[in-house]
Write a structure and sequence with these properties.
40% of the residues lie in helices and 13% in strands. It is an alpha/beta fold. The chain folds into 2 domains: 202 residues, P-loop containing nucleotide triphosphate hydrolases (Rossmann fold), CATH 3.40.50.300; 155 residues, P-loop containing nucleotide triphosphate hydrolases (Rossmann fold, 3-Layer(aba) Sandwich). The longest helix is centred in the C-terminal third of the chain and has 26 residues.
Length: 454
Amino acid sequence: MLPTRRCLVGLPVVRFSDLGIESSLVSCLADQGITEPFEVQIEAIPSAMEGRDICCRAPTGSGKTLAFGLPLISRIGPAKPKKPTALILTPTRELAEQIRNVLDPLAWESKMNVLSVYGGTSYGKQLKGLEKGVEILVACPGRLLDLLKRKALSLEDVSIVVLDEADRMADMGFMEPVCEIIDHCISEPQMILFSATLDHEVSKLRKSYQNDPVRIEIGPKEISMDSMEHLFWNIKPYKKTEIAVKSVRRAGRSIIFCRTRSGVDRLSDEMKLDNIPLSSLHGGLNQKQRDRAMRKFSSGRSMVLVATDVAARGIDVEGINCVVHYDPPDDAKAYKHRSGRTARAGSSGVVISLVKRNEQRSYNRIQREVGIRKRFTDPRPEVLKKNEFNLVPSYENKEGRINTKKKRNRRGRSKNSKRNKFTKGTNENRNKNFRGKEKRRRGRRSKKKADDRP
């Protein structure tokens, strides 16, 4: 049986400095308003700082990124070109970018570089970053294997490997690529594994690649369905959008899940006609569009995220009051993952399922498997708790607001663009240019008159 670290219950308040984190990183965290570690950080950081392998079960949103990121930054050395010293593997592009955004300011404080690599984007920027040398590489398995085959990098200097959302990688069929990537690490690196569940596939990974790991378990083994209110509303198909609009207007910050990309696009278009500030997210968007949608939603510039299941795991956005199953989830596991976006960290939340008549049987099965028993009722969005949502403006105007859009001149170029700066010149140069042009025009007119003579 694996050793399990005992929870530090009843002890005085723990600070990051008590866990062995250096003062410069502690100050950087304090500047971000982070002064006290979460439970998973208190449990994982000391063992990680000692160089121990870690097998940790913890839910999304529990503070895992700093739990592995702080020891990683503290322990690794400088990198050579194309030879990162730490590797973080994630199942999705959104999660990779989220981890990079968290670690980047901390790594910068320690004079280190962080690079994220994933599919759906050009190779150019990623190849240049690897050429310069990065200490911390955050990667999705598919793109990393592609770069390894191109000999764009080597993993021989990697001293720490982190597997984040390992169960999700197993669900997506990434276990074989993950094993192939770990085998590219010539030395035996410290292996830190985080997962929401420690099921059969994750257990095989632990047995194959970890050496006497410290086992840490945070929170319930499964997403608790008791912390949220579940509503199952019978609905006619043509009423679904109307009820969804009324529900999110009452609930405030919400996520609506659709089954298909076209369903997301169609619902988004319909809700925009009702002036609902929203973002759309699905696998058919390119990476820039997906990043823009997540930034817009997480920063409060949109109230609703309409998404496929691509957003159901690994994305940590605070303050979600409501989850709407616009289309039914595939199974009980998907229902849990979708619903788990709300009622987090002790807060309350509501989960609404819009149920057509032919979907009642599948929802009955889902209820049995997740351990809840709710009646199917008529929709009543007016009884939902009214949550205020203050939309963050995308730009600000002269009344104390700053417009983020560049001012354009008559030709459509920014007034501060390099092209305008270099072509404009001083008044003296402009006068010289004008006189030169006038002379050339006179010369052409004289020549034309001469050619017209008989």
